[in-house]
Design goal:
Structural class: alpha/beta
Number of domains: 1
Helix content: 40-55%
Number of helices: 11
Mean pLDDT: 90
Shape: globular
Distance between the termini: 65 Å
CATH class: Alpha Beta
């Protein structure tokens, strides 16, 4: 009975996309958003982006973080009561600390799982991974140089990319550090997330997205079809060239 009552009280379902730079989180979040039934996942809690979300959703200036969390869940959930958001590893700990400091989602000493479940009912975790770590690092190095983090119509590079072996190597180290953050987080939670592999998402977008929707227990009406991705992959001949050059230099060392 308690389980049924809990389910009745919390009809809303939440999920979080756990990403690191250039892991395909934009590709996944855009695909889920385009279904119209899987929330409107975005980085609502990225400190530098929070002001624009507050403005876009008409939050009063005096609204504190706890109210903002509740409000953004309410205002961006789809009509079927699904709310999604995205977190990157580098600000995960700061985000959890902000939730604790409100004291609205449990005592400061509560474990991560309890704090998160209080803020986001029935929370499920999607974790982005990428097999080719070198291509991931190359993608980040290019984004750092060009300022273009999401390839879309109407967006252009602010600078030309140039091969920089040190920057690529540093990007690989940073990706490893971010992966370690997520590993430690899921160890604390004692919970395995649903893994979404970038390469699989690119090769079979519809099939991978369907598997994610099944995990989230979201059914699409027959009239809604999974559309091709609106996010364009950055990978191209230049990335191929940089990969060959980096591997050749590594082999010569």
């Amino acid at each position: 009975m308690g389980g049924l009552f809990h389910h009745w009280r919390h009809r809303r379902r939440c999920y979080v996309i756990c990403g690191i730079a250039r892991s395909g989180s934009n590709l996944l979040s855009d695909g889920l958003r385009d279904t119209g039934r899987a929330g409107r996942p975005n980085q609502f809690f990225l400190p530098s982006s929070e002001p624009q979300f507050r403005a876009a959703h008409s939050f009063a200036e005096q609204v504190d973080f706890a109210e903002y969390v509740r409000g953004i869940v309410e205002r961006t959930a789809t009509s079927n009561e699904v709310f999604g958001f995205k977190l990157m590893a580098w600000y995960l700990d700061a985000f959890l600390e902000r939730l604790r400091e409100t004291t609205e989602f449990g005592n400061p000493g509560e474990c991560d799982r309890e704090i998160l479940n209080a803020a986001f009912p029935r929370l499920r975790f999607l974790r982005m991974t990428r097999r080719n770590k070198l291509r991931q690092a190359i993608s980040k190095a290019r984004a750092v140089q060009t300022g273009l983090w999401k390839v879309q119509e109407g967006k252009s590079e602010v600078a030309e990319p140039e091969y920089d072996r040190a920057l690529i190597a540093q990007s690989m180290l940073e990706a490893k550090a971010e992966e370690d953050i997520w590993d430690a987080f899921f160890t604390r939670l004692a919970k395995k997330p649903f893994l979404v592999e970038y390469e699989g998402l690119c090769q079979d977008f519809k099939g991978t997205l369907s598997a994610v929707l099944d995990f989230l227990e979201i059914r699409l009406p027959r009239r809604i079809k999974i559309r091709p991705p609106t996010t364009t992959r950055q990978s191209d001949a230049l990335s191929d060239e940089w990969e060959r050059r980096y591997r050749a230099e590594e082999g010569a060392r």
